[in-house]
Write a structure and sequence with these properties.
7-stranded mixed beta sheet; 4-stranded antiparallel beta sheet
Length: 122
């Protein structure tokens, strides 16, 4: 059973940085896409970034391009989200996600972590 455990959230002032971590276990992640999503109060879940475990191709949502970087450490089975130049609108619960490469985000074959809160006061 795939398990994803996020860490690294917190409160940071606008312009600051945070790095989120997602420890993954229970799957053959070399065949997976790993991703980060976020959800702010009263809003729908939003795609932030994803990475293809094998090869490392990365994809980003428009609102975070140039500020956030997704990466993975295969030896540690961990995915990271480096967030720089944070803005109040980045405030949300951030979720780590995983899916087999043959599936799509949003279908039944997605796995989710419990989420970690990131708050950027205005």
């Amino acid at each position: 059973q795939v398990q994803l455990v996020e860490s690294g959230g917190g409160v940071v002032q606008a312009g600051g940085s945070l790095r989120l971590s997602c420890a993954a276990s229970g799957g053959t992640f070399s065949t997976y896409f790993m991703g980060w999503f976020r959800q702010a109060p009263g809003r729908e879940r939003e795609f932030v970034a994803s990475i293809r475990w094998s090869g490392g191709s990365t994809y980003y949502g428009d609102s975070v391009k140039g500020r956030f970087t997704i990466s993975r450490d295969s030896a540690k089975n961990t995915v990271y989200l480096q967030m720089n130049n944070l803005k109040p609108e980045d405030t949300a619960v951030y979720y780590c996600a995983a899916r087999p490469s043959y599936s799509r985000w949003g279908d039944e074959l997605n796995y989710w972590g419990q989420g970690t809160q990131v708050t950027v006061p205005s």
